[in-house]
Amino acid sequence: VQLQASGGGLVQAGGSLRLSCAASGFPFGGYAMGWYRQTPGKERELVARISAGGNIDYADFAKGRFTITRDNAKNTLYLQMNSLKPDDTAVYYCAKGRSGTLYVVYDYRGQGTQVTVSS
Questions:
Q1: Tens of pLDDT along 66-82?
Q2: In this predicted structure, what is the pLDDT of residue 78?
């Protein structure tokens, strides 16, 4: 299993970024996928997740600002982030669920991608 997150960067508050996660080594369309984030000194937290069937769950802070999507033909997971705030600064990781349903354990792979939002 390989998950390669990209698309992070430095953006001003109020700006947007689109993260991508290229997946390989497993049948992508059959598994739930998620985005998590982590800042130094804090536990990794859920941002959003999407089941194999397209059901979606967002953390409260992401609702109305972030959109998770997946392209099974491209084996790619996306996270569109709008109206970014300095509190969104973190390393963002993509994760693979242990099955296709939403509420399962997620396993992380890869380095993640740094998102920095300046005020």
A1: 999 999 999 999 999 99
A2: 98
When the pLDDT of each residue in the chain is averaged and rounded to a whole number, the result is: 96
Reduced to 3 states, what is the DSSP secondary structure of residue 99?
coil
User: Do 48 and 58 contact (CB within 8 A), yes or no?
Assistant: yes
C-alpha angle 21-61-82 in degrees, rounded to nearest 5: 60
Q: What CA–CA distances, in Å, run from 105 to 17, 46, 95, 100, 118?
A: 27, 11, 9, 11, 33
Of the candidates 40, 43, 49, the residue with the CA atom closest to the CA atom of residue 90:
40
Residue that is written with structure tokens 């509420």 in the block: 103
Dist. CA 119–CA 113, nearest whole Å: 20
What does the alpha-carbon distance between residue 64 and residue 24 come to, in Å, rounded to a whole number?
A: 30
- Cα–Cα distances (Å) from 95 to 3, 75, 119, in that order, read 7, 13, 29
**Taking the alpha carbons of 51, 56, 57, 58 in that order, is the dihedral positive or negative?**
positive
Mapping DSSP to helix (H, G, I), strand (E, B) and coil, where does residue 62 land? helix
Q: What's the pLDDT band for 111 if we cut at 50, 70, 90?
A: confident
